[in-house]
Each structure stands twice: as C-alpha cells, then as structure tokens.
Write a structure and sequence with these properties.
CATH topology of chain B: Aldehyde Oxidoreductase, domain 3
CATH superfamily of chain A: Beta-grasp domain
CATH class of chain A: Alpha Beta
Structural class of chain B: alpha+beta
Oligomer: heterodimer
Order of helices and strands of chain B: EHEEHEEEHEEH
Strand content of chain B: 25-35%
Number of helices of chain B: 4
CATH architecture of chain B: Alpha-Beta Complex
CATH class of chain B: Alpha Beta
Radius of gyration of chain B: 16 Å
CATH superfamily of chain B: Molybdopterin biosynthesis MoaE subunit
Helix content of chain B: 25-40%
Largest sheet of chain A: 5 strands, mixed
Number of strands of chain B: 8
Largest interface: A-B, 17 and 28 residues
Strand content of chain A: 25-35%
Shape of chain B: globular
Distance between the termini of chain A: 39 Å
Largest sheet of chain B: 4 strands, mixed
C-alpha cells in the first residue's frame, strides 16, 4: 500500500464533497486510470464525479499526467475538469 | 535559433485582487532594462458581463500547480523565440465584469516574435493552467461552471506543427 494525497477541483470537488484527502491505495492501483476506476467504487459522490472519466484530467505532483501514467513515488494526485482560465 | 536563454525578467504572478493592465504594462516595460527591445506585445483578458446575465466570475485555482504551469509555458516560449522579457499575471477569486482576468506580455527585438509569443502564451495558458471559472448570477446564486472553449485545443494544437528548436 502506498499513501497519497488526493486533491479535487471545480465540479469534481463539489461532487465528491471534499477538497482533499489522504488515501492508502491497494497494491493493484498502479496508474491514474486504475485510481479513477477504484475511486468510482468509493461512494455515490465519487461515482458521480468520475462517471464520464474521459473528460477528467489528472496531475501527478503538480504536472499534467495521462491515464496510463504510473503512480509510483507520487505524493499528490489531483483530479479536475478541463481548465477554463485566461 | 538563439532561444535557449530564459529571460531573467520572466515575471509570473498569481494575484487575488486588483489586476491593472495599464500599470502592468508600464511595470513590464520599465523592468526590461535592455536597450535592444524594439517591440512589446501585450494581451489583456477581461471578465465579460454577457449583457447583465453574469454578476461576477469566481476563479478557482490549484495554487501549487498554477505558477509552475505558467512558468513552464513561459520557458517553452523562451526556447522557441528570442525574447527579452515575458510577463504573465493571472487573477483568482471573485472577478467583476470589466475587471482583468489575465495580463500577458512579451518583448523582443522586432515585433514578429513578440506577437507570436504573446499568442503562444495565451493559447497554452488556456489549455494547461489549472484555473476554473464559475459564474455568479445577479441574484447572488452560483451559476454554472464555465466549460473549456471548443476552439482552445485547436488553437493550441496549431503550435505543435512547428518544432521548438
């Protein structure tokens, strides 16, 4: 098991109902995509947040990351909708 | 290409209130300190009121990532063109119609590079910088989250055709 901090933004944060949390990940959760699949089973808010996971973006330790990116040695995982700044 | 040098005057800031584009432009030009500067191009992005439909925008951001991301985009621009200075100043928090959301500026010897760099910075900022806008309605209630613009990815992708030396 590895412990990570999960942080959520915009409507992902609203649906989950938390800004951040610490989680111990099961050994078979090794990538961003596997983490999203695992989180979907953690309650209705998570299921709603990740229902259309093709639009959700992730960052690993503050850097954009694709779904197949490895979580090895990662301390902070962020999930958010497409950005809309500027 | 001589673009490997990152200007020491790359000025990246996130601020919670009072972004004044006129003052930022003056400050940027005053801070260049390079007699070779022949061109400064700036862009100012404002909060639209949409004819009274929107009372304000609430801008959420990921503080630990946003400044890094803006700095990364600035560094890419510096690798691509010979720039003598870059400024990116982005607001977060509550922004009223007519107020400035973002100010971007680029300086170079001649105008072509500064024009391209300013547009490059904005196109990448729009798709990469972790900010999210939410509307606030005239009755004070929160409105919807603003979706990313459909053409933003297309505009950003145009830059991928040209190599970055």
């Amino acid at each position: 098991m590895s412990r990570v901090t999960l942080v959520y933004f915009a409507w992902v944060r609203e649906r989950i109902g938390k800004r951040f949390e610490q989680r111990d990940l099961p050994a078979d959760v090794r990538t961003v995509g596997e983490l999203m699949d695992w989180l979907k089973g953690q309650g209705a808010g998570y299921a709603a947040a990740f229902a259309d996971d093709s639009v959700i973006q992730a960052a690993l330790d503050y850097v954009h990351a694709p779904k197949d990116a490895s979580l090895e040695n990662v301390r902070e995982v962020a999930f958010f909708p497409p950005v809309s700044g500027g | 290409m001589s673009g490997a040098v990152i200007p020491t005057c790359a000025d990246i800031r996130l601020i919670g209130e009072g972004l004044d584009p006129g003052r930022e432009l003056e400050r940027f030009i005053a801070g260049l300190g390079d007699a070779n500067v022949g061109a400064v191009v700036s862009f100012t992005g404002l909060c639209r009121g949409d004819g009274g439909r929107i009372a304000a925008l609430e801008l959420e951001h990921y503080p630990a990532m946003a400044e890094r991301e803006l700095r990364r985009v600035a560094q890419r621009a510096c690798r691509r063109w010979s720039l003598l200075g870059i400024a990116v100043v982005h607001r977060y928090g509550l922004i009223l119609p007519g107020e400035t959301i973002v100010f971007v500026a680029a300086a170079s010897v001649r105008r072509a590079e500064a024009f391209l760099a300013a547009e490059f910075l904005m196109d990448h900022l729009k798709t990469d910088a972790p900010f999210w806008k939410r509307e606030r309605l005239p009755d004070g209630q929160p409105g919807g989250w603003v979706a990313a613009g459909d053409d933003d990815r297309t505009r950003r992708a145009r830059w991928d055709d040209a190599p970055e030396s």
